[in-house]
Amino acid sequence: MAFAELMGTVRPGAGKGVAKRLRRAQQVPGIVYGGGGGPVRVTVKEKDLAILMAAQGRGNLIIRLALDGGDGAAQRTVLLKDVQMDPVRGCPLHVDFLEIAMDRRIRVEVPVTLEGQALGKTKGGLVEWHLRRVTVDCLPSAIPETLRVNISSLDVGDALHVRDLPVPEGARVLGDGGRAVVSVTVPAAEEEAAPAAAAEAAPAEPEVLTKREGKEEAPPATEEKAKKEPEKKGREKEPEKAKA
After folding, report:
1. Which end of the chain, N or C, is less packed with Cβ atoms under 10 Å?
2. Burial of residue 11 (number of CB atoms within 10 Å: 0-12, 13-18, 19+)
3. Does pTM top 0.70 for this prediction?
């Protein structure tokens, strides 16, 4: 495994005032964690750190950090863990390193790279990339730059899981082995269209007729009774008029 080289200086001071003076001098304040003697405050050149950050984009990078000055002066083997960036200028404001031992296992995040074109995509399927980074437990010398996965054989409905990821000998991927890393699914529009098509294809239910055409319904019995009562009263009054 290749190592990157970086020069730095142990800084005795701390605080915002010290950090501002260092940044004006194109220096970046930082801290080395993980050592037996506790955290060590350091300073590195901004341009040297920028080179390392570009290389870090290709994966975890092991760095030999040579420090001058102070009680922490020594060469330390470290990983670049975190860089705080200026949101306006885009330059580094602070850097954190993690000291490691080459004979001790560590846990690092490793990117996942997909290769090839899924078979299901040629059939109209949708490739969904669920996990782009995973945590790997291994020795520093076995840290993979990336985990490359060939998805050419994935058909619609297929998925590749964490347990299927290829890792170097002696390394293992942490987390749920059944979690999907990438899958090929049917587009949502097609899934919604399928039930609708089934509903259209279903036979229509026969119409239930509530009355026969050409015949009117008989008027309610109450209406017939109401019409007959006045006629009956009229017939009862006619004899009285005759007597008069």
Report:
1. C
2. buried
3. no
